[in-house]
Amino acid sequence: MSDREAMEFDVVVVGGGPAGLAAAIRLKQIAAAAESDISVCVIEKGSEVGAHILSGAVIDPIALNELIPDWKDKGAPLNTAVTDDRFLYLTETGSVRFPNFLMPPLMSNHGNYIISLGNLCRWLAQQAESLGVEIYPGFAAAEVLYDDKGAVRGVATGDMGVGRDGEKTDHFEPGIELHAKYTLIAEGARGSLAKTLIARYSLDKDSDFPKFGIGLKELWEIDPAKHKAGLVMHTMGWPLDSSTGGGSFIYHLENNQVSIGFVVHLNYKNPYLSPFDEFQRLKQHPAIKTMLEGGRRISYGARAITEGGLQSVPKLTFPGGALIGCAAGFVNLPRIKGSHNAMKSGMLAADAAFAAVKGGRSHDELVDYGTAYKKSWIYKDLKRVRNVKPLWSKFGLQVGLALGGLDMWMNQLGIGLPITLGHGKPDDATLKHAKDAKPIAYPKPDGKISFDKLSSVFISNTNHEENQPIHLKLADPTIPIAVNLPEWAEPAQRYCPAGVYEVTVDETSGAKRFQINAQNCVHCKTCDIKDPSRNITWTVPQGSGGPNYPNM
To answer: For residues 524 and 303, is the Cβ–Cβ distance under 8 A?
Structure first.
């Protein structure tokens, strides 16, 4: 018997992002319409809803229109409609704009809104609570609970007050068990529980490898004379080479604020590449630097993005629950959008869960959710772009994107490729050995346009209680120095956007040591994805540790 306190609900949702909150709202809406009731709980590892949310973000309001049709009257923070859409190819000193008429219609952002996804989630949380949803921020789900038949019966939050040595301190408090008839996993990309569940139930046995990118973002306040509310700009090309996938986004919000971000596909090959430093270098491009000069950087963060698309979506259901949102991977990569699909998936899962609970069921599979997904506009949205990522990965930027654009146009006309291309390798298997790769010399930051990692982490408001076990677990502590350093120049030093991993040298003995600065972690999960030895596992820290993004 557990000595943990237990709470009982009909449905528990893990994660207060757009998918989880949409599911919770939908459950309460259907219950009210049926003159019934259903108990719903959302737990969120951030200190508040929105604290760990980071996205570009340009949102397609299609799901919000379905979920809360009167969202404008209710004050949803969608304040800046897209008014200008630009696509640029960058060289080191110049740029070429793609004519908009050459872009497939699905790439158009007109009718969409430039938002802070964190602020939208805060607003969705208010709507959920007004309907009776119980939301508990600051509680990270650390463990899946199973019944004697192997079905999921809920989750447990992590113990609090455990010291760095693993021993209980005077402030120890055991975690809380949250029991549910159905548990919806809405942790976002590379969620720790989702990863466990996918492996336990072999949910990915009929799908391709999951694929990811790392998205880095800064929020700037710029000179009003340079601000163009509603402007959306995407770039490809420099500073990345043609064999490395990625690009930038620049979105002009209200109040002279600009979201600027950079995405690097995590199937990159050069172990010396640093996504953070590529982003800082990008901002020195003349097309971007002139916009930022005289401005002020307000916030910084980073987050993994699901990029596998249709062929990488695993089976969505397991006994006792389902995967929703980016835990399953519904991002449309060419559009750089996933929030609309995430919300819709939560709504579809909610429909299935409500019907099951009201039918007297529990802890079985919500098969109706998987069926509804296949018939939904999420599936259609992902199907028509499914070959863009494989083509880019296989043929590089110029040829791959030309073929991808052609395929999207053919899909638009109903004559797309009759096959679905595969992704080839998982992201942790794509690095060249250090001896076969060229080191990259990055320029020093100037402190005005470009910055270092530590000053960036500082403005992410990241905080972890120091006396706690390190939440980044090494399967074998010897591998970073014995294997990763000679084979790949220990790439964790560079792929981490927060300075968590360092190789230090003892001044006396000359011995090298792998140091983990866990307090810097912004919860991007890149280490869990890209480590070539698959040696790092990201787990939730105690309490509400991590970034505290104000409006990212």
So the answer is: yes
Question: Are 180 and 151 spatial neighbours (Cβ–Cβ below 8 Å)?
Answer: no
CATH 3.50.50.60 placement within the chain: 6-70+118-209+310-383
Reading the block at residue 464, the tokens are 């972890």
- All CATH 3.30.70.20 domain ranges of the chain, comma separated, are 427-434+452-538
427-434+452-538 maps to CATH 3.30.70.20: yes
* Element (DSSP H or E) covering residue 247: strand 246-252
The CATH number of 6-70+118-209+310-383, from 3.50.50.60, 3.40.50.2300, 3.40.50.720, 3.40.50.150, is 3.50.50.60
- Annotate 238-270 with b (16+ C-beta within 10 A) or e (fewer): bbbeeebbbbbbbbbbeebbbbbbbbbbbbbeb
**Per-residue pLDDT tens digits of the chain, which is 552 residues long:** 467 999 999 999 999 999 999 999 999 999 999 999 999 999 999 999 999 999 989 999 999 999 999 999 999 999 999 999 999 999 999 999 988 887 888 788 999 999 999 999 999 999 999 999 999 999 999 999 999 999 999 999 999 999 998 899 988 999 999 999 999 999 999 999 999 999 999 999 999 999 999 999 999 999 999 999 999 999 999 999 989 999 999 999 999 999 999 999 999 999 999 999 999 999 999 999 999 999 999 999 999 999 999 999 999 999 999 999 999 999 999 888 999 999 999 999 999 999 999 999 999 999 999 999 999 999 999 999 999 899 888 888 888 878 888 888 878 777 877 889 999 999 999 999 999 999 999 999 999 999 999 999 999 999 998 899 999 999 999 999 999 999 999 999 999 999 999 999 998 998 999 999 999 999 999 999 999 999 999 999 998 899 999 999
